[in-house]
Automatic annotation (TrEMBL):
GO terms for molecular function: UDP-N-acetylglucosamine diphosphorylase activity; UTP-monosaccharide-1-phosphate uridylyltransferase activity. This is UDP-sugar pyrophosphorylase. Its EC number is 2.7.7.64. Its cofactor is Mn(2+); Mg(2+).
Length: 622
């Protein structure tokens, strides 16, 4: 008999603490003191079924040890340990069974926030303020999601954000951060070269592929020391309302696990120690963002500018939301005692909450054609100081929820095992009223075009609601670039309508630029001169920092590559057969999945391509 057993809570085999689980009791001799401690905790928490099938000592001993390795890991990964996890689960499952509304006692209303208009003086002032602050920011990308709704076999970060250049989401994000870093340092004339840190939260589903994508592309130009990967672990699955842990159907020595949600990012950042390092390095802001929004960086400078000029501790970026769109609504929640919070109400909870509080029609559009509740795009900007203060109390634990799918209305059995989940945007829920929580709304065309839905689901989206597909995500990038150039004075032809993979979309000229060409609208304005025009069938690829369009008339395809020391003016009339978008059949499996999922491919028929690899001043006149 292991002496350590005696010392554990004064209990031993002879005390009979394990007598309710006789198969475990017979195996105590093969377990270490740590394992016995975990076994005691499991029995205390009603988990004796986990040992029901355990054979005599000597049979499957290694697998029994493996079971405890997993239990130890699940225990270590959850703030408060597995015991807290089971207790929290039991409570949330009871609330769910009782049909308890998590917002019981709260009255929802539309909050007030900052509404920005792209391109006006205020917007440009905020962009400049944001760029100034960017060198004191750290970026955190949550990318542990499997992307089940999209159904793509690879990681979403590796998908092309658009197929004119093929630049994938991760490349686009990293180049955008580097461009901001350079713009920020040159704006404040900082001799000391700031390096904006990037943290990527991965999971077992995405970790290896994310690392491979970075390594095989030399981190897309970022220093390897600037990028850190933190991996979230899955949590234990629950088999019933008593929060009994679910065993793997194919391996009875393994507990089933599932992802815990993007809310894990706060606990992981806290335990990584990075937040304190950033604070000592003088950083002030942490910006969280998601894996597939090709427009996001067009909105970052101004929203960071809002945070810094208004002194907001928490600022969520939002866009006008269509009723029932799969994005949470930013909502003011007033409790019966008069206290208030402004928080995201997730898209599946907004409708029932509204119906339960006197809004008979639930989640519907108002006279503007949009829901009165701004849509949360899950881009959060936190002031690092108050964030550290809060996390030192909570250790990053975030309010959880459970969403079991019951077999029938008795709510006694689940269709399949469930687990607790948490969302990163619920961080403000626990904050004291002294913390300044706000949100900033921008145009959707400028800030939000995620890639989440597979083509079948996208084609079933109600007319007028966004598809959130690979097709619409790419089209949105062209549209935004066109509207920005229009605002800067370029004559851009109107779009035509086309249908790809059953989705009707606006097809604008395919204009792209590398992030270093322009981080802000002022940059764009500075780089386009008088009398430029671009026809609808045209494609433009601007790849370089100091490329100026002046008196350019384009009808076809134009590609300009220039290194940072080359200053290139592009003028005159460029006309050629250009690059066409050719429809492809999504069922044709000889075509790459990345192409099929958007329903078209770029056919490069004819173009003018100019390259400037040497420093100097150049003028290209066609
Ligand atoms: O366990 C997880 C689950 C998800 N993610 C990451 O979290 C992000 C968001 O995941 P989803 O795209 O699945 O999120 P949803 O569409 O369900 O919803 C979230 O994004 C929406 C906007 O895109 C709304 O803001 C909504 O309120 C918010 O919960 C992705 O980058 C994903 O990779 C993780 O890192 N770990």
């Amino acid at each position: 008999m292991d002496n350590a057993v005696e010392s554990l809570a004064g209990l031993s085999v002879t005390d009979g603490w394990a007598s309710s689980a006789p198969n475990l009791q017979r195996n105590l001799g093969i377990l270490s003191s740590e394992e016995i401690g975990l076994a005691m905790m499991l029995l205390r928490e009603g988990q004796k079924h986990l040992f029901d099938h355990w054979p005599e000592p000597g049979v499957d001993d290694r697998r029994k040890k493996g079971f405890f390795d997993q239990v130890a890991q699940l225990n270590a990964n959850y703030p408060g340990g597995l015991e807290s996890y089971i207790q929290n689960a039991r409570k949330l499952l009871a609330d769910s069974k009782a049909g308890k509304n998590p917002y019981d006692g709260f009255i929802p209303s539309v909050p007030t926030g900052e509404f920005l208009t792209f391109g006006n003086d205020n917007f440009m002032m905020l962009e400049e303020a944001g760029v100034r602050e960017a060198r004191r920011a750290a970026f955190v990308l949550v990318a542990g999601g499997l992307g089940e709704r999209l159904g793509y076999k690879g990681i979403k970060l590796a998908l092309p954000s658009e197929t004119t250049t093929g630049r994938c989401f991760l490349q686009h994000y990293i180049e955008s951060i580097i461009a901001l870093q350079e713009a920020s340092c040159s704006l404040v004339q900082d001799q000391h070269e700031a390096e904006i840190p990037l943290v990527i939260m991965t999971s077992d589903d995405t970790h290896k592929s994310t690392l491979l994508l970075l390594k095989s592309n030399y981190y897309f130009g970022m220093k390897t020391t600037q990028v850190k990967l933190i991996k979230q672990e899955k949590v234990a699955c629950l088999a019933d309302n008593d929060a009994r842990l679910a065993l793997d159907l194919n391996d009875k020595y393994k507990i089933q696990t599932k992802p815990h949600g993007h809310g894990d990012v706060h606990a992981l950042l806290y335990s990584s120690g990075l937040l304190n390092l950033w604070q000592s390095a003088g950083l002030k802001w942490v910006l969280f963002f998601q894996d597939t929004n090709g427009l996001l960086f067009k909105a970052i400078p101004a929203s960071l500018g809002v945070s810094s000029t208004k002194g907001y501790h928490v600022n969520s970026l939002a866009v006008p939301r269509k009723a029932k769109e799969a994005m949470g609504g930013i909502t003011k929640l007033t409790y019966t005692d008069g206290s208030e919070i402004v928080n995201n109400v997730e898209y599946n909870q907004l409708d029932p909450l509204l119906r339960a509080t006197g809004h008979a029609d639930g989640d519907v559009n108002c006279e503007t054609g949009f829901s009165p509740f701004p849509g949360n795009i899950n881009q959060l900007i936190l002031d690092l100081g108050p964030y550290i203060k809060e996390l030192s109390k909570t250790r990053g634990a975030i309010a959880e929820f459970v969403n079991p799918k019951y077999k029938d209305s008795t709510k006694t059995c689940f269709k399949s095992s469930t687990r607790l989940e948490c969302m990163m945007q619920d961080y403000p829920k626990s904050l004291p009223p002294s913390v300044k929580v706000a949100f900033t709304v921008m145009d959707k065309w400028l800030a939000y075009a995620p890639v989440k839905n597979n083509l079948e689901d996208a084609s079933k989206v109600p007319k007028g609601n966004p598809y959130h597909s690979a097709t619409s995500g790419e089209m949105a990038i062209y549209k935004a670039n066109c509207l920005i150039l229009r605002k800067a004075g370029v004559h851009i032809a109107d779009p035509v309508t086309d249908i790809f993979n059953g989705q009707e979309v606006e097809l604008w000229p395919r204009i792209t630029w590398s992030p270093k060409w322009a981080s802000t609208f002022r940059d764009v304005k500075r780089k386009v001169g008088e009398c430029c025009s671009i026809s609808q069938r045209s494609t433009t690829v601007i790849n370089g920092q100091n490329i100026f369009l002046d008196g350019l008339s384009l009808d076809g395809a134009l590609v300009v590559n220039a290194n940072d020391q080359a200053e290139v003016k592009v003028t005159g009339c460029v006309q050629n057969k250009g690059w066409a978008l050719e429809h492809v059949d999504y069922k044709d499996i000889s075509i790459p999945e990345e192409t099929r999922m958007r329903g078209f491919k770029v056919c490069k028929i004819e173009q003018v391509e100019i390259n400037y690899a040497d420093p100097g001043k150049f003028c290209f006149e066609s």
